[in-house]
Amino acid sequence: MSDQNLQEAFKGFSKxxxxxxxxxLEQLGLLSKEDREFLVRGGLKDTSLGEKFIENVIGYxxxxxxxxxxxxxxxKDYVIPMAVEETSIVAAASKTAKWVRENGSITTEVLGSEIxxxxxxxxxxDFKKFEALIHEKKKYFIELSNQxxxxxxxxxxxxxxxxxxxxxxxxxxLCMAVLHVHMNPVDAMGANIINQVCEFxxxxxxxxxxxxxTMCILSNLVDTKITRAQVVIEKIxxxxxxxxxxxxxxxYLDPYRAATNNKGVLNGIDPIxxxxxxxxxxxxxxxxxxxxxxxxxxxxxxxxxxxxxLVGTLEAPLIVGTVGGVTTLHPAASLSMKMMDVHSANDLSxxxxxxxxxxxxxxLKALTTVGIIEGHMKLHIKNLTxxxxxxxxxxxxxxxxxxxxxxxxxxxxxxxxxxVLKELRTSQQKG
Length: 431
Ligand code: MEV
Fold this sequence. Notes:
This protein is of the alpha+beta class. Helix content is 53%, strand content 19%.
């Protein structure tokens, strides 16, 4: 099916019932019959898979999974699975993606290929000697690690590529040495293998240098592999472009705003990480550390005017895997991967960057025009209604009343919902 037809096929998708949405996804070949049945059954019930992942299992915590539509990334159409509990994220992503595809484009790239493992030697007696010995032997250590530990990766075109020595100044005047082991994990996230490589090297380093290794662990600040997305909006009112540029500058200058800006970016990224069974804590940690790389916490996105165009960029370490672990074993994760037709870790990382940047654009556009309340609260009314304790038959009335209050006061809260429900029940008792 052509991309144009795919876009057409998703017109009015949000108005469909859940069954109709599933029908559509199955008709379009985005879900198999088995995937559809899995979703209709309500996902995993039997905890045997959960037992494989974690300890002391007592059940599953279920969060809603939706799909964001309208995304065209690097000229290809995508339907994006998002597992998230927050109202309006999926709607905002789809709406902004539509605006972008009608008025501009999204392109992405991955810069670099290596992740980082760290080996710490808390107190080295003679740093210069240590450094010289490591430099002398590093080629051998790289080859040995590839032969003994990372051979699977080497077969797939990856493996250990570099060992760097860093010196950290201690407050007590002594010297801490840190080795950075660089490794291309290909399509794995690579955490287990890089940790194994570092631990494997430990005794070799100690034997060679006579120094003591303190600990080995990967770093989540992967500045050696950065994913970049760019959105160019060609058709935009200059006033709106300027407002978005200023809002973005705010997040560049001010860490208080940068934190919220980046939270909005991660609203687009985390739900895909969860839907694909990836380690979202690792990505979050990497994103926030990278956001602080010049000593101040800043936004990971930037929007600037370029002539009549508005150009946005996102750059961040978005390290994910597409083979192994939950991504392969969890049926919801594997159907999510199939839905996006993702074949490599880089492909998935590029989608994350594109959706994160689009989500950020949607937030800045709303914040600098109608404000966040309008869109967010309209969609949040149902949550408030349920939160107030409304029963199925009471929901339409409470929702309608809350919509009226929102239109009038531009604001709405749980206490409004509780009050409306109380009034409804009182009037029904009287009647
Ligand atoms: C809310 O989940 C996300 C926003 O706060 C992001 C932002 O302020 O840019 C709307």
